[in-house]
Amino acid sequence: MTKFKRKNEKKYKTKIRKGDMVMLIAGKDKGKKGKVLEVFPKEGRLVVERINVVKRHQRATREFQGGIIEKAGRIPVAKVMLVCPKCNEPSRVKRAAEGRLCKRCNEIVDKVK
After folding, report:
1. Which one of 6, 17, 76, 82 is most buried, by most CB atoms within 10 A?
2. How many Cβ atoms are within 10 Å of 20's Cβ, its own excluded?
């Protein structure tokens, strides 16, 4: 999370996008499903709603009252699987000319724009 790009900084190639439904396959929230809110390809992480909830002690300001707030933390892309909207099961995804395809049922997850 630096301003300047490092020489060996790599961008992770992910098949998960903002708005996708994913299931956590490892960790304390294993088995939970949620919608992807943000994707950080340079870090290889993403934010999923209601998963990896952390408590933050927020100081009071003029706009905010202060107190303990809960927010979703970042999790690695490798710990989630895309949930296919057709078969409603977590599955791997492959790229095709039509868009992303579910490897379990061979249905189109979304079309290329």
Report:
1. 82
2. 21
